[in-house]
Amino acid sequence: MQLRTLLLLVVAGLIAVFVALNWAVVMAPSTLSLGFMDIQASLGLVMLGLMVLLATLFLVYIVYLQGSVLMDGRRHARELQANRELADKAEASRFSELRAFLEAELTKLAAQNVALKTELGQRIEESGNGIAACIGELEDRLEHKTPPAGN
Length: 151
Known about the structure:
Keywords: Membrane, Transmembrane, Transmembrane helix. This is LapA family protein. By secondary structure, the chain is mainly alpha-helical. It has helices at about 5-20, 25, 45-145; strands at about 30-35, 40.
């Protein structure tokens, strides 16, 4: 129990004890002026009734405030959930865009890889042909410079 609630209960209890101890005085009739007429009534009972009415009005006001706070809290929770879902969808959209971008980049890299492999294969073949031509030329030179063995 909160300290405020406990304090309010203690004050209400003290008021009840005070009224009970002075019940005879509270119930004593007296002449009360309402401004336009005078009536015979118990001043203590009228004041007690006004205090109960005021306490009831405060309780109604507190219940109203609590209800409005609860409704605002629920509304904020719904809005927060909607915003959270919207953010999740946006995040998923960003992930799908990133995936599409990465796939496009990987496709480009694969195409470049194939082109480089083809070019490398051509260059190796050209180098091999060049080396074979050089070897053939060297063989021709060696054959022309050395006399045949049978002469």
